[in-house]
Amino acid sequence: MSDFSKPSMSRRQLLAMIGTAAGSAAMYQAMTTLGVAQESPYQGPINLDGDPNGASVLILGAGLAGMVAALELRQAGYNVQVLEYREKAGGRNWTLRGGDTYTELGGFTQNVEFDEGHYLNPGPWRIPYHHHAVLDYCKRLGVRLEPFVQVNHNAYLHSMDAFGGEPQRFRHINSDFRGNVAELLSKAVNQNALDEDVTGEDRELLLESLREWGALDSDLRYVESEHTSEFRGFGRDPGGGLTGVPEPSAPIGTSDLLSSHLWQYLSTGNLYEFQMPMFQPVGGMDMIGQAFQRELEDLIRFNTKVIEINQSEDGVTVTYTDSNDEGETETATADWCICTIPFSILSQIENNFSGPMNNAIAALPYAASVKFGLQMRRRFWEEDEAIFGGISYTNLPISLIGYPSTDFNSGGKGVLLGGYSWGPYAYEFTSMAPEERVRLAVEQGARIHPQYNDEFENGIAVGWHRVPWTLGCYGVWTEETREEHYPTAADFDGRVLMAGEHISYIPAWMEGAILSSLDAITRLHERVMNE
Amino acid sequence: MSDFSKPSMSRRQLLAMIGTAAGSAAMYQAMTTLGVAQESPYQGPINLDGDPNGASVLILGAGLAGMVAALELRQAGYNVQVLEYREKAGGRNWTLRGGDTYTELGGFTQNVEFDEGHYLNPGPWRIPYHHHAVLDYCKRLGVRLEPFVQVNHNAYLHSMDAFGGEPQRFRHINSDFRGNVAELLSKAVNQNALDEDVTGEDRELLLESLREWGALDSDLRYVESEHTSEFRGFGRDPGGGLTGVPEPSAPIGTSDLLSSHLWQYLSTGNLYEFQMPMFQPVGGMDMIGQAFQRELEDLIRFNTKVIEINQSEDGVTVTYTDSNDEGETETATADWCICTIPFSILSQIENNFSGPMNNAIAALPYAASVKFGLQMRRRFWEEDEAIFGGISYTNLPISLIGYPSTDFNSGGKGVLLGGYSWGPYAYEFTSMAPEERVRLAVEQGARIHPQYNDEFENGIAVGWHRVPWTLGCYGVWTEETREEHYPTAADFDGRVLMAGEHISYIPAWMEGAILSSLDAITRLHERVMNE
C-alpha cells in the first residue's frame, strides 16, 4: 500500500547515479529524434509570406474554421470580410448558460434556467492533448484551460440487460476483465499452447508481466484477495487505528463479466482521441469562440443569411439577407471565398459551383446527435457516490451521463450532461418536443442515479438536426464517399475553397475545423502569390 | 474517428425509450444498495455525543492527525492544547515556495528560489477520489481542489536498458502490450487450448471482447493499421483539407516490448490508490494544513520541543523546551494525551510508556524517500512534447519526473518534480549535500528531456531521513511487525493514544493520519464517557 515498489540498484544504475553511464552520447543522439511536432500536421503558427497586394477574401461562417481563416488572412495582408448567420461567433463551439434562449427548427424555444456558473456545451466539450492547433490558438488567444476528467474509475458502467440493471463501477469491470485475460493467457502459456509464438526468455517475461499487470497470485490466478482489491477496490477500505483492517472485495465471475457486454466501454479511455489528459476551457467551450470574436469583431457581419453564391473568373459575389428579416437582399464581393457553411446548409443555397462540387455537397449526410443538460439541486454524484467528473456509460438511449469537471468537492448545484445520444436514439429524441426529451433523460438517468427523482431542477436538450444553422452534428464521410467526393470537396472550385470539420480527417472535432482552414488558406495564399 | 460507435436499438431499449421497461421496480431495489459510504471506514463528520465534563487533552504534534483531534475534541467540549515542534502547522502536509528556507539535519540549508506561484510538495502531493476523510475536511474547511493528472498517455516510460535509452510514450507501450496480450489469448482460444476454462457462449464473447479491447483486426491480429493507430497514436495524425491523410504507426515488436520491462509501469494508474481522477489543493498541498491552522491557531503552541512524556493514573505531564532555544523547560499537563509524534522521533523522547509500547515504537523503521523540485525557464514538456501533467517513469535513480498539474498550456516557467526516489537510491541521495542531489537529478532528467541542459534554473531536494521532525518519510510495517506490535501501538497505553499515518492501514497517506485520529478520539471519548 505504499507509494510504489522499491527499486533495487543494478550496476548500470549505480553508474548512472554517479554520472558516468556509458553510451550517453548515443542516447543523446536518439533523443534528438524526439518531439511531438513530427506526428502532427500542425507545425505551429502559419506563415503566409509575401504581399497579397490587396486581394480580398469573403469568409462565409464565423465558426472556428472561418475565424482562423479571418485572423490569419488579415494578418497576411488580405482584405477580409466574414458573414455569419447568427448573432455571435463560434458556430458549434457553443455554450448555453442561464438566461440564454435557443429556438430550434420547428419553432420550439428553450429558455435556459441554469444557475450562474453552470453551463452545457451542446457541441464540442473536450480537447485531446494532441489537438495541437486548438491548444495553440487557446494559448495565443489567452483561453485558460483546465483538465477535463474523461476517465473515472469510480463512474458506472450500466446495462439494462446485466446485473439486474444495477450499475457497476468502472474499476470493477476494468480490473476483473484484465485479471481474467491475464489468468487465461498465463494458463495457455503454461500449457505450452503458445510455444510457437512465444519462446525462450519471452515466455518467462510474458508470465512475469501478466502476473504484475493482471494482479495475479503466485499460482497465476485472479482471485479475491487484498492484492486484487488494491486494483478493483476493497469490500471495506483500509482505515486507521483499531478499526482499520481492510476487507477484500470479490471479483465478478468470468461468465457474468463477458455476458454483461460492459467490457465494450473499457476502451474509450485507451483511444488516442480520449486518452487522459483532456482539457476544457475554464468557463465553457465558447470561451474559444468569444476570444476569436474579440479579435475579429470589426470583420464580422452578424445576423446575415447567405442565399446565393455566384462566382465568375474574376471574383465571388454572395447575396444575403438579414437572418431575422428576410426581405431585402444585399451583396458582398471579393476575389476569393472561403466557405465554411456546413454542406447540410450549403445544399440549400443557390450557387454556381461545378457539378462535381454540388455532387459532393449532396453526398455528405450529417450525423444525428442529442445532448442534454440537467441541473441538479445537489451534486449527489460527488456527495453520495464519490464520482468526481468523468462519464458513466449505459445502454439506455441517453448513452451516457457526464459529470461536470468543475467545482469539484465544493457542494452546491451542478449541471450534468444528462445524455449524449447518436444514431437512431438521437433521431427519436430529436423528433420529440424538448420538454419530452428532458423528461425521458431524467427518467432514464434515474435508473443509474435514483437521486434524480429528488434533485432534478431544470433541463435543456439540443438535437443537432434541429439546429437551424447546421441541421446536423457533423459531416459523415464513408470510405466510399470520401474516395469519390472528398478530393473535389477539398479542392478549389473556381475561386471558392471549402473549410470546416467536414473538410478534414478529424470530423466533429474543432481540430479538424482549424486544420482544414489552415490547409485551405495555405493553398489560397500560394495561388494568390502565383497569379 | 467519430465520437463513439453508434448504438443499434434493441426491443428492450425501445421499451426503455418510451418509459415502460419491465423490471424497473426490481432494479430500483437493487439501486438502494448502492452508495459509496459502505466501502469506507469514514462515515462522515464524527459525532462525539455527551459532555466530557471539562476533561483535558494534550495533543502532541500539529500535523493532520493532531489537528483533526484538536478540531473535533474542542468541538465536543474538551479542553485542548497542542504542542508543535515547528513554527507552523501541517507536518508532512508541507509545501515549499520561493522565499522559504529549510534546514535539514546535518545543517544544510536550502533557500528556495522558485518564482511566485510555483512550489514543491515534499510530502503528499495527490489525493485519491476515495480518500473520503481528506475530501470531507477539505470541503468543510473550504480548501479548493483541482485535478491532479496522474495518468498521462503521452508521458514517457524510460529505461537505460531498453530502446537504446530512448524514452517511449506510455500510449505506445500500453496499447502494444494490450494488443499483444489480446492477440495471443485469441490465438490460444482459437486453438482450443482453453476449452476447459471457457465454454459455449463465453468463448465467442471472449473473442469479441478481445478484438474490441485489444484493437485486433478481423483475423484477430494486432498489426500496423489505422485501427491500432486510433489507440497508440499515428505516424502522422489525421489533419485537414488535402494534406490531412493520416499515416499509421508501427507497433513495437513483442520481444522488444517484453524485454524492455517497461510494462512494469503500466499498472500504476490501474491501482485503486492511483486511479483517475486524483486531486490536489489549488496552490499547494499545505493549503489543507493552513486551513486547519486558521481554525486552531489559539490552541497550538508552536516552536515547542517535547523532551519527556510522563503519565500517572491521573493524567499526563509533558516536558518541553523551545525548539530554537533548548535551555529552560516547561511542562504541560492534561487528563489525556493524543501523541502524533512519529515513532522515529518518539523513540528518542524520554517516557514512561509500557515496555510493549516502547518495543512497538522501536520496531517501526521509517522509509527513505527523496523529492526534487526543479524550476525550468520554459515548460518544454508541454511546448515541445505535449506532456500536460502526469508522470514519466524511469529506471534511473530519480525514478520519475512529475509534471505540474497547474497553468496548463499557459507558457512561462514551471517547477518539475525532478525525482521521487525510494529505498537505496533515496539513502544515496540523502547522504549527499543538497546541491549535489540536485545536480544529479538534473543530469539524470536530461537523459529523458535534453532540454534540461538549457532550461534548468534552480532546484531543491528534500531527503526525508534528514527532515528533523520526522527522520523519515513514513512508518513501514511488515506483516510480522504489524502482527506483533500494531495492536499495542494503536491501543491505549495508560492515558495516551498514538495517532498518525503510522497508526493506520494506509501508511504514508493523509487519509491514514486522519482516520487514525478519528479512530483514536472515538475511543478516547468512549472511555471518558464511561469513567
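qc> The two ends of chain B are 69 Å apart (CA to CA).
qc> done
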